[in-house]
Write a structure and sequence with these properties.
two-stranded antiparallel sheet, 20 helices
């Protein structure tokens, strides 16, 4: 059998969790993990793409979208809690997959997690820029709008953007904080979380009196005739889009190796942060779409589309001469300031999660050693932090927030599906392994997690699926070219470079290539000429990879 399916022994994983002189420092408690999760969850969903999801897909039904997304998260969260309590090692779903389904699946999920964490951080950074513009405007500062959006977005005057500079700035600052140290990062995050939760509660209390019943009816606007534009299909598509807002609880699991008592702290951190934030999400969404008619969230320039809460607080007041005069001017400014700080904590946790996943992959030999090099003084993976500071900055500066947001959602859903499957596999293959926390009602809960998450993935647009498949093909290229021959576990018996391993990987690539071609064809039948760039990109990817995978099959067959 090919070493692609070779699993990392549980005993080895637990051994890696032991702190050593050069390992990651154990500093985090259960309370810190809950705060870490809340820091990631509150902000991304409430403050960024919620407005676009409501304005383009769900209307007031965005509240139902959050409930649907929360159900999927609850199923996946219970599975994450079991894994995190029995495998307290940095790496999250990547590590869990390595222990249950083998190296090949672990690589796929590890590469997919880049969409969840790194691209997710870029999404939030893009929205941070939009709120910064709102804050500057309240003080009469006119910052060039073209320098606050990507070249693919337009200003309120209809001009194309140049680069999102504020997004680059906040990513760089948070990366420097992470390099300084995890404990210091947690202290900063705790202060921000307290402020952020307080401001969310103030928004809810004050906003309730300005909720207009007419803005909430109909709860589910009639479908426009296009799949995913309102109606129930729109509600479910919106659930898939905002799903990435819940990734905070699984970002907690990436800090397992830096937790004092992971067996007990991990389940509490994951489920506690998820429960608290789900309740706040639903209430907050009710106030937001109740204060402002959902169509307002997609009006104006592209920068406004990622700042829906700023739009909502501008409508909290009395109408004078046909214009809303804010009743609490101080609240408008203070909420925007709190959102900016809250976003900073979201970016911090996502960047931390990403660097820890690559730390584990590098430690296993699948990625270059620079990703697992720990700073001699700070004991953090500083080179990995620097790399993702550059990578995430590029995405935030030049890729529209809507695109990176949907990429994050589909990557997150895919990760959750594999974790749910992993619990089923682990219960079958290692039923007697010690588990500080057990997922209840197995196999029902994991199966429901797979069904709900895949159901939401199915409602995402074709272009999002195209980007996911293309991204996975790039990852497969790296694994085929470098990962196989450098895998520590795969080469332990000297058989990591056997032809069968390469053949299976290349065949998997052919399958992905065929899927990409099919998706591009279906997308072409449903779009206008403005999106032909993605079609041309897909065609180029298909042609290149047919040649690339054919070369590897032939090379290993005749070697």
């Amino acid at each position: 059998m090919s070493n692609l399916w070779k699993r990392k022994p549980l005993e080895q994983l637990l051994g890696e969790a032991e702190e050593s002189e050069h390992g990651l420092k154990k500093t985090l408690s259960a309370g810190a993990l809950v705060a870490l999760g809340i820091g990631a969850i509150i902000g991304a969903g409430l403050f960024s793409i919620t407005g676009m999801a409501a304005g383009n897909h769900a209307g007031p039904g965005i509240m139902l979208s959050f409930i649907i997304a929360a159900v999927g998260c609850a199923f996946a969260g219970l599975c994450y809690a079991e894994f995190a309590s029995m495998i307290p090692v940095a790496g999250s779903a990547y590590t869990y997959s390595y222990a249950t389904m083998g190296e090949f699946v672990a690589w796929i999920i590890g590469w997919d997690l880049v969409l969840e964490y790194a691209v997710g951080a870029a999404t939030v950074a893009s929205s941070w820029s939009g709120y910064l513009g709102k804050l500057l405007a309240t003080f009469g500062v006119a910052f060039d709008e073209r320098l606050m959006i990507t070249p693919f977005d337009v200003t309120s005057a209809g001009e194309a953007g140049l680069i999102n500079l504020p997004a680059v700035f906040i990513v760089a600052v948070m990366s420097m904080v992470l390099i300084k140290g995890t404990n210091e990062s947690a202290l900063v995050n705790n202060l921000i979380v307290i402020l952020k939760v307080a401001i969310v509660l103030v928004f809810i209390v004050v906003g309730f009196k300005y909720v207009k019943p007419e803005n909430l009816h109909p709860l589910i606007p009639q479908n426009t005739g296009t799949f995913g534009e309102f109606g129930w299909s729109g509600v479910i598509r919106a659930a898939a889009i905002v799903f990435f807002a819940y990734i905070g609880f699984d970002a907690v699991s990436t800090a397992a190796q830096e937790t004092k008592n992971p067996a007990k702290a991990m389940p509490l951190g994951i489920m506690g942060s998820l429960l608290i934030c789900t309740v706040l999400y639903i209430i907050f969404a009710y106030v937001m779409v109740g204060v402002v008619h959902y169509t307002e969230f997609t009006a104006g320039g592209s920068g406004d589309h990622l700042a829906p809460v700023a739009i909502a607080i501008e409508h909290m007041g009395n109408v004078v001469n046909g214009k809303v005069v804010p009743a609490y001017p101080w609240l408008n400014t203070s909420i925007i300031v709190a959102i900016l700080l809250g976003y900073a904590s979201v970016i911090l946790v996502m960047l931390m999660g990403q660097s820890r996943v690559f730390y584990s992959m590098s430690h296993d030999g699948l990625l270059p050693k620079i990703f697992s090099e720990v700073h001699s003084r700070f004991r953090t993976p500083f080179k990995s932090n620097l790399f993702f500071m550059f990578f995430v900055s590029l995405f935030a500066a030049f890729v529209p927030g809507k695109v990176v947001g949907e990429m994050t959602s589909i990557g997150t859903l895919f990760a959750f599906i594999l974790v749910c499957i992993g619990v089923l596999v682990m219960r079958k293959t290692q039923p007697n392994a010690p588990r500080a926390f057990k997922t209840p009602l197995v196999p029902l809960i994991p199966v429901l997690g797979v069904v709900v998450c895949f159901g939401m993935m199915a409602f995402l647009p074709f272009d999002t699926w195209i980007r996911l498949v293309a991204w996975m093909m790039i990852g497969l290229d790296i694994y085929l070219y470098r990962g196989i021959r450098n895998s520590i576990l795969g080469n332990a018996d000297g058989r990591g470079n056997d032809a069968r391993t390469y053949h299976i990987t290349a065949i998997s690539g052919f399958v992905l290539t065929a899927i990409l071609a099919l998706l591009a064809f279906l997308h072409h039948r449903n779009i206008d000429a403005e999106d032909m760039g993605l079609i041309y990109f897909s065609a180029a990817m298909v042609i290149f990879h047919v040649l690339f995978y054919t070369y590897y099959v032939a090379k290993k067959s005749f070697k």
